[in-house]
Specification:
Length: about 375
C-alpha cells in the first residue's frame, strides 16, 4: 500500500508521521504548484471551485509517483465538498488510474470516526496505539499552529525581509522528523527561539488585518498566492481565521464544552445571516464584526470563484463593513488569477488602511491597538 492525501497547509506533517510510525509507505504529493493547478483545472469541470481542482491536481501528481491508495473527505452538508471525493474518484478512473479510494466522513462521528478510519486503514488492532497516535498528531498540529501564529507577529517587524519565511519553510520537515513527545517539544522550543532571535526594526506599528473566508484558500499558501508573506513584506500583521487546531477543537467537543468561540461568532453574524449556509460564511461575517470591535484596521476576505457559501457572505460584507466601520477587501481566487494583480490590490488596500489610521489618530480615535 502506498498512501497519499491532498495538501492543505501543514496537514501533511501529522499524516506523514502517522504512516511513517506505522511502517506504511506514504507518498506526500509535491507542494502545490502551477503544475498542480493546471493538472487539476485540465481534468475538472470548469465551474467547480478551486479546492476541488487543487486536490485533483495533488492526486494526479501523487498517482504519477506511484501512490495506490487515496485518502479523501466526504460527508453531508450544504457545501459541495462532501461529494468531491466521489467525483475525484470517477474522474481519475476515467483517466485510467488504478487505486483504492478511502473516504472519511469528518462530520459523522468526528474524532471517533477519525479513530475508526485510521484503525481500519492501518489494520491496527490496538485502540491504545491508535489513540496514542492521534494524540501525537494533534500535538504536532497544535505546535505547528502556535509556531505559525508566531511567524505572523514576527514577519512584519523583521529587519531583513524574508528571514521569518526562511525559518518557517523548514518547520514542516523538522516537526515531521520528531517522532516522540520529548523530541517534538524540544524541536518546537528550538524553532521558537530561532524566531525570537530574528532582529526586528524598533518602533514599527504594523497594521492589523484579519484574513477570513474559505478554509482551504486561507490555509494553502500557493492558492492564495502567499498572501500572508506579501502582507508581511508590507509590514502588516495578520490574524488568520482558519486553523486546523481550531477545527480539531470542534472534533474534540471543546466547542460543546464552551472552550471555543463559535457561539460568539454566530451571535455577531446573526444580524446578517440567521442560518448556517455551510462552508465558512458564518465565520466570515461574524469574525468581521468581532475584528472591528477589537480595533483591527481591515479584513481580507478570500473566496474561491463559484463558492456558494462565500458568495453569500460577500454579498452581506459591505453592510457589515458599514455597520462596524471596518474596511473589507474581497478577493475571488481561481486558476486565472495572477500574483502581480493581487499584490497591486493589496498595496492599494494597505494605503487606504494607513490613511484611515492616520485620520482616526488625528481625530483622537486610535483604530489599531498594535504597537511595535
Ligand atoms: S466552501 Fe466553497 S470553495 Fe470550499 S469546498 Fe465548499 S464550495 Fe468549494
Amino acid at each position: 500500500m502506498k498512501v497519499t492525501f491532498p495538501h492543505m497547509g501543514q496537514v501533511w506533517v501529522p499524516l506523514k508521521t502517522l504512516f511513517d510510525k506505522n511502517g506504511v509507505e506514504c507518498i506526500v504529493p509535491p507542494k502545490c504548484s502551477k503544475n498542480t493547478i493546471s493538472l487539476g483545472a485540465k481534468y475538472s469541470p470548469e465551474w467547480v471551485c478551486m479546492p476541488f481542482k487543487t486536490i485533483l491536481g495533488n492526486y494526479v501528481e501523487a498517482l504519477e509517483l506511484g501512490a495506490d491508495t487515496l485518502i479523501g473527505v466526504a460527508g453531508p452538508g450544504l457545501c459541495r465538498l462532501g461529494y468531491y471525493a466521489k467525483l475525484h474518484e470517477s474522474i481519475l478512473r476515467d483517466l485510467g488510474y488504478e487505486f483504492q479510494m478511502c473516504t472519511f466522513d469528518w462530520q459523522e462521528k468526528q474524532i471517533v470516526g477519525l479513530a475508526e478510519f485510521i484503525k481500519t486503514l492501518l489494520r491496527e488492532d490496538s485502540w491504545r496505539k491508535i489513540v496514542g497516535d492521534i494524540k501525537f498528531g494533534l500535538t504536532q498540529l497544535f505546535y505547528l499552529d502556535d509556531i505559525e501564529r508566531h511567524t505572523h507577529a514576527i514577519r512584519p517587524r523583521e529587519r531583513e525581509q524574508g528571514t521569518t519565511s526562511k525559518i518557517w519553510q523548514t518547520v514542516g520537515d523538522r516537526i515531521c522528523a520528531a517522532h516522540d513527545p520529548a523530541t517534538l517539544s524540544k524541536t518546537k522550543k528550538q524553532i521558537m527561539d530561532e524566531l525570537n532571535a530574528i532582529p526586528q526594526v524598533p518602533g514599527v506599528r504594523p497594521l492589523r488585518v484579519g484574513i477570513l473566508g474559505e478554509f482551504f484558500m486561507s490555509m494553502e499558501p500557493f492558492v492564495n498566492m502567499d498572501l500572508e508573506e506579501e502582507l508581511g513584506k508590507m509590514r502588516v500583521e495578520i490574524t488568520r481565521g482558519a486553523w486546523v487546531s481550531d477545527w480539531a477543537k470542534v472534533w474534540l467537543f471543546l466547542e460543546a464544552l464552551g472552550f471555543g468561540h463559535g457561539k460568539k461568532v454566530k451571535k455577531a453574524a446573526s444580524p446578517y445571516l440567521k442560518h448556517d449556509v455551510s462552508g465558512d460564511a458564518m465565520q466570515s461575517l461574524g469574525e468581521t464584526a468581532l475584528h472591528a470591535q477589537e480595533g483591527y484596521d481591515g479584513i481580507i476576505h478570500l473566496q474561491p470563484f463559484t463558492c456558494m457559501p462565500e458568495i453569500i457572505a460577500q454579498n452581506m460584507l459591505p453592510q457589515v463593513s458599514r455597520d462596524h466601520d471596518i474596511p473589507v477587501m474581497s478577493v475571488i481566487l481561481d486558476e486565472q488569477m495572477g500574483k502581480a494583480g493581487l499584490v497591486t490590490r493589496l498595496e492599494a488596500f494597505v494605503d487606504l488602511m494607513e490613511r484611515r489610521r492616520y485620520r482616526k489618530e488625528r481625530e483622537g480615535k486610535v483604530g489599531s491597538k498594535a504597537q511595535g
